Amino acid sequence: MPIDPNRVRHPEKANRPENPIQRKPEWLRVKAPVSPEYAQTRDLMRGLKLNTVCEEAACPNIGECWKKKHATFMILGAVCTRACAFCNVATGRPDQLDPHEPDNVAEAVGKLNLEHVVITSVDRDDLPDGGAEHFARTIRAIRKAAPGTTIEILTPDFMRKPGAIEVVVEARPDVFNHNLETVPRLYPGIRPGARYFTSLHLLARVKELDPSMFTKSGIMVGLGETREEVGQVMDDMRAADVDFITIGQYLAPTPKHAPVDRFVTPDEFASYASWARGKGFLMVSSSPLTRSSHHAGDDFRKLREAREARLSGRTVAEPVAVPAE
């Protein structure tokens, strides 16, 4: 159920001092969403009482994606049990699970005629399995309603939820994504409810359970990390056999959230992309506006091609990244 607009989204941040608003550089400016397709996608989500991370996380790419009728569904309600300093999703006491949500998501996937769908969620530390079975039910519902659609999931860390990872992997998503978000040194201030090695273990465990399943993870930069720390995260991901890394610019959703330390230049993102490819990732997306689910369908096709090429000993040319208009 969409969150009450009159509710305080971030009560834990209400008494924090506000950070100065920084002017975005030219390469981070995007057009306001005004297309008819955007409105149609929004109306469909409202009609089926579905949440999207596109709206809840204030994604800068929402206009571009919804114009193409691409949306990232957010299941398990609209209220998160964590209080990350970077995230715009509402925090507090979570909603009751909607038993119809898996079927409603599947219906929306069919109406949007999606070739590839991304399903994410809030954290649900209040649930015994962290919402794992709800993820599995949603995957199965999409498989039934739209058997030709490939499915990518972006899950919580399922911390202290034994068996949860196994339940989700058994439902056979095509891509299992879990974001590390930032470097370990910044976790206490940026992701205080999470643990870096818990997230890293999740990614490694997915590959242990199903080596053929694509895994994906992402980080934000511009939070105060060093280049050396980003390189170490890349190495940790590769040690966990992660296939696909995304690197994007952190943007503060409100003045109460963690401040932007700096705006990383497009040339630096290109350098990170080259570095990551050298470390052996099958797929790399590194640009100021990169987000976990941005261009996910196109990226999935490239990911499959890259694996097939590697297995056959061929090489696949990497696309040249260009700044967003």
TrEMBL record:
It comes from the Bacteria. Its EC number is 2.8.1.8. Residues 66-282 form the Radical SAM core domain. Gene3D superfamilies: Aldolase class I. [4Fe-4S] cluster 2 binds at residues 80, 84, 87. InterPro entries: Aldolase_TIM (IPR013785), Elp3/MiaA/NifB-like_rSAM (IPR006638), LIAS_N (IPR031691), Lipoyl_synth (IPR003698), rSAM (IPR007197), rSAM_sf (IPR058240). Its main location: cytoplasm. It is found in: Cytoplasm. Keywords: 4Fe-4S, Cytoplasm, Iron, Iron-sulfur, Metal-binding, S-adenosyl-L-methionine, Transferase. One of its GO terms (biological process) is protein lipoylation. Pathway: Protein modification; protein lipoylation via endogenous pathway; protein N(6)-(lipoyl)lysine from octanoyl-[acyl-carrier-protein]: step 2/2. It holds the Pfam family Radical_SAM. GO terms for molecular function: 4 iron, 4 sulfur cluster binding; lipoate synthase activity; metal ion binding. The keyword Calcium does not apply. Belongs to the radical SAM superfamily. Lipoyl synthase family. This is Lipoyl synthase.
